[in-house]
Specification:
The structure is a single chain. 38% of the residues lie in helices and 23% in strands. The protein is built from 20 helices and 25 strands. The chain has an 8-stranded antiparallel beta sheet, covered by helices on one side. It has a 7-stranded antiparallel beta sheet with strand order 5-6-7-8-12-13-14. The mean pLDDT is 93. Bound molecules: 2-deoxy-2-amino glucitol-6-phosphate (AGP). 2-deoxy-2-amino glucitol-6-phosphate (AGP) binds at residues 296-299, 344-346, 349, 352, 395-397, 486, 603-604. 2-deoxy-2-amino glucitol-6-phosphate is lined by residues 296-299, 344-346, 349, 352, 395-397, 486, 603-604.
């Protein structure tokens, strides 16, 4: 996720501070870096793709003159990671410099309007529209601050922005809507940044901007206004007591926990994808006689869940296939009528890319869903969608799993609507509920954030866990088990509950914990039978079920109650959250590092 640092100093050169600030945002992940400073009425911009220290050294960026400036580390969302797409972006005259974190949803419309008004664009980013919008507003002969405020009112989507211009050489203007931005003050000057660590060596006195707020930073302090009506906001300055390491994790003890808690935000991002990409992928999916969903690990389990959606909602025959098995299993049958949708957080997983290569050779239509712009997957896919989750530092995938599912759900529902195989009412209802999923996840985190840690204490000595679910919940069970395996190294089983009697039930004896995933829906009555089967063998039943589901609650030793009203088809997204927390807390209790499990790498780029 991009990092922003802005600063107005009372005295001295700002560039070395920008360098330090961006270095402390490095943990957010990035592919490019850039600074803009103002000195003697001139705007200086230097930027390129690459590592911060390399780019800063090569372009001698710490030598840039001026005591006011902004810096940016870019994590590509629109446009490949290359110099021209790196921030800061400027207007036609090179008088306004903008850095941005987030996604401007209506940038294509805005860009077209601006081009019609004679603006020339240099990059493929959504950000550049902001610089041109400000330029356009300034043609009305208003001051920079007013022009920024007016421009922000045109934007739809998420943003944290910082703007400077020699036409107002003593100020940084910044604002936020759903992307984080913090303002800081010290004797030295005034700062803004995506996150507290960036400014921690200079100040611990901060104000967190809220959605829809705009701040003017000057040498003596700052002023906050509401973007909508320009009214002034009074906000108390807070003193942060975190260490630098704590601040990078925003006070969470591990990146994984931070990422679990980021899910309401990353799910909202995944709901804001550009409509034209969704339409394009849906059109390709509709042409297929069959759909192969190719992925590895957690991404594979997202595909297992999605296969129920595509088959049941859109009536498209769908096969979720582990990447490393694809060529062996379907290599001879995949062909021109097949659509292959591969899902990979990194977009670089060797097995997945190998499977795609084969599918392309056989003339299949290859599509992609990834979290990484510019990854190999984006280059080899006919069309792709970037899920916009921001970098995931924890080796165990959490927020990227739920966001993958959010993207896949949208595709399945669009295809269902297009094909008309289920009623429009049903599609409407599911789409409405889909918009509510980030709030459901928020609620789940509020309900169980603490409780799961207590539950873990009861089960910390167990040497085997079994995870079971029916229908789409089998995918939730598989992913819940994978989290436990990766993080705690406790052997555990997971499979569709109906399979248990065909063999695996033999491992169940007195006291073995069996975790049942049982949302309300079509599979609910069958799962009761499966619970009885396990209870009869002395298993301890832990159920993740809807609140007030008295039958399931009555059969269970422990229950994780979930908010009512989540449709079964979308349930893997909120229902995985308590299982992520369970694995996380068990690992911590065992003294293991959940961010770096043994033997695992974030991205597996080898055969
Ligand atoms: C998940 O927690 C693991 N880190 C792993 O299974 C991962 O999902 C798998 O390697 C696939 O990675 P990808 O999504 O980047 O292709």
């Amino acid at each position: 996720m991009c990092g922003i640092f802005g600063c107005v100093l009372k005295d001295g050169k700002v560039a070395p501070l920008i360098h330090g600030g961006l270095k402390r945002l490095e943990y957010r992940g990035y592919d490019s870096v850039g600074f803009a400073t103002i000195d003697s009425g001139v705007l200086h911009v230097r930027k390129d793709s690459g590592k911060i220290d390399d780019v800063v050294d090569r372009l001698q960026m710490t030598e840039m003159p001026g005591s006011i400036g902004v810096g940016h580390t870019r994590w590509a969302t629109h446009g490949a990671p290359m110099m021209v797409n790196a921030h800061p972006h400027t207007d036609c005259e090179g008088r306004v410099a903008v850095v941005h974190n987030g996604v401007i949803e209506n940038f294509l419309e805005l860009k077209e309007e601006l081009i019609n008004k004679g603006h020339n664009f240099a990059s493929r980013t959504d950000t550049e529209v902001i610089a041109h919008l400000i330029e356009e507003e300034m043609r009305g002969d208003i001051e920079l601050g007013e022009a920024v405020l007016k421009s922000l009112r045109h934007l739809e989507g998420s943003y944290a922005v910082a703007v400077i211009s020699p036409s107002d050489p003593g100020r940084v203007y910044c604002a936020r809507n759903e992307s984080p931005l913090v303002v800081g003050v010290s004797e030295q000057g005034t700062f803004c940044a995506s996150d507290v660590p960036a400014m921690l060596p200079y100040t611990n006195r901060v104000v967190y901007l809220r959605n829809g707020e705009f701040a003017t930073l000057g040498r003596e302090g700052f002023e906050i206004k509401r973007i909508q009506d320009g009214s002034v906001v009074e906000r108390e300055i807070k003193e942060v007591t975190w260490t630098l390491e704590m601040a990078e994790k925003q006070g969470y003890s591990h990146f994984m926990l931070k990422e679990i808690y980021e899910q309401p935000m990353t799910l909202r991002n995944a709901l804001r994808l550009q409509r034209q990409y969704l339409d394009l992928l849906t059109a390709f999916l509709d042409r297929g006689k069959e759909l192969f969903l190719i992925a590895a690990g957690t991404s594979h389990y997202a595909c297992v869940a999605a296969s129920y959606m595509f088959s049941k909602l859109a009536r498209l025959t769908t096969y979720p296939v582990v990447s490393s098995e694809f060529v062996e299993q379907y290599g001879s049958s995949v062909g021109i009528d097949s659509v292959v949708l591969s899902v990979s957080q990194s977009g670089e997983t060797y097995d997945t890319l190998k499977a795609i290569d084969h599918a392309r050779m056989r003339a299949a239509t290859v599509l992609g869903v990834t979290n990484t712009v510019g990854s190999t997957l984006t280059r080899v896919s006919r069309a792709y969608i970037v899920q916009q989750s921001g970098p995931e530092i924890g080796v165990a995938a959490t927020k990227t799993f739920t966001a993958q599912l959010m993207v896949l759900s949208q595709l399945a529902l669009r295809l269902a609507r297009m094909r008309g195989k289920i009623s429009q009412d049903e599609v409407d209802d599911l789409e409405e509920k889909m918009q509510m999923i980030p709030d459901f996840v928020d609620k789940v985190l509020g309900m169980h954030g603490e409780g799961i840690a207590k539950l873990v204490q009861k089960y910390s000595g167990e040497r085997l866990f079994v995870y079971l679910g029916r229908g789409i919940s089998a995918a939730t069970a598989l992913e819940g088990r994978l989290k436990l395996l990766e993080l705690t190294y406790v052997p555990s089983l997971a499979y569709p509950a109906g399979e248990s009697k065909h063999g695996p039930i033999s491992v169940v004896e007195e006291g073995v914990p069996v975790v049942f995933i049982c949302p309300r829906g079509e599979t609910r009555k069958d799962i009761v039978g499966s619970i009885m089967e396990m209870k009869a063998r002395g298993a301890r039943i832990v159920s993740v079920c809807e609140e007030g589901d008295v039958d399931i609650i009555g059969l269970s030793d422990d229950v994780v109650e979930m908010p009512a009203g989540i449709p079964e088809m979308l349930s893997p997204i909120p229902y995985i959250v308590p299982l992520q927390l369970f694995a996380y807390h068990l690992a911590v209790q065992k003294g293991l590092d959940p961010d770096m499990p043994r033997n695992l790498a974030k991205s597996v780029t080898v055969p």
